[in-house]
Amino acid sequence: SIPLSFFAGIGGASREGVLVKGSSFLETLSQTKIVVFDKTGTMTKGVFEVNGIHHSPYKDEELLEYAALAESYSTHPISKSLQRAYGKPIDKNRVSDVEEIGGHGLTAKVDGKVVAAGNAKLMKKLGIEYHDCSHVGTIVHVAIDGKYAGHILISDVIKEHAAEAIAALKKSGIEKTVMLTGDAKNVADHVAAQLGIDEVCSELLPGDKVEKVEELLTKKSEKDKLAFVGDGINDAPVLSRADIGIAMGALGSDAAIEAADIVLMDDDPLKISKAIRISRKCIRIVY
Ligand code: ADP
Ligand code: MG
Predict the structure, then answer these.
(1) Cα–ligand 1 centroid distance for 26 (angstroms)
(2) Which of 166, 173, 220, 280 could crosslink 30 through cysteines, CB 3.0-4.6 Å?
């Protein structure tokens, strides 16, 4: 039977906007020693601003239009941001044959032209020569009908409570914080340094994130637990693999929310340490 205080714990957590899907997760959460995060949408808002368009033979608005249309069927934070930056209504009838490639970007037909939009990995995969970029930021390279068409420089902002959230975790005895991201090294290192995260791995493919978590799982002692916090479709496998999966609920993907054991209703990273504190209190009452 489940001790009553577990229900009290789940109830208390839910009043804080922390949805715990079952009593066993409170126990595991209370033993968490390593917290691993995704970057985009978890530590950052996942709302990118366009900072500039470079190396393009097209007019800025024209390149942005191709990119926004190509991205119009995707729910990736970059896609949504490009559609927002474009700002005009999008006629999806102009778009077909969309193919998303996890950790790379996507290709789609726009007005019959094949548009590719994504990172350097995508350009390499498609055999398209691209312009390297010296700017610090996330870069969306665009190719049209197999020819390089320039890149869009975008940037995200760190969530309001992110640094405080990391500090609170350390204060509550979390031994290690790790950030995993598919984004560029310069962006990832900058974010990790600002937040005081112990370890950072960048330019990862979705499968690499699972591998990294498995590596961390084998290195730790059995009694210490590992939590992963993420928001995206690509995060679902890692959320399942971790001892505890925590998803951002407000802007998170359905796949992430489904795969998670705990959902943070308001996407506030400060709620991670709050949830851990609630779980420990609840466990102390039970035993
Ligand atoms: P993260 O680990 O930051 O959540 P993802 O694994 O979703 O990121 O994506 C990793 C990288 O792949 C992004 O930083 C971006 O460069 C590229 N990418 C992924 N999806 C898209 C897309 N729809 N449009 C453009 N680029 C994309
Ligand atoms: Mg993400």
Answers:
(1) 32
(2) 280
Q: Which of 104, 133, 155 is the last residue of a domain?
A: 155
CA 148 / ligand 2 centre spacing (Å) = 27
Range of the domain at 137: 49-155
Q: Clarify whether residues 250 and 185 are in a common domain.
A: yes
Which residues sit with their C-beta closer than 6 Å to ligand 1?
A: 38-40, 71, 74, 76, 78-79, 103-106, 117-119, 138, 140, 181-183, 206, 232, 234
Distance (Å, whole) CA 29 – CA 60: 48
Ligand 1: nearest atom to the Cα of 71:
23
Q: Ligand 1 atom 19: the closest Cα is on which residue?
A: 105
Same domain, 186 and 242: yes
Residue 262's alpha-carbon distances to 17, 96, 108, 197, in angstroms, are 10, 36, 35, 22
**What's the mean pLDDT in 129-143?**
90
Work out the average pLDDT over 129-142. Answer: 89
Residue 278 shares a structural domain with residue 167: yes
Q: Please answer whether residues 52 and 85 qualify as being in contact, where contact means their C-beta atoms are separated by less than 8 angstroms.
A: no
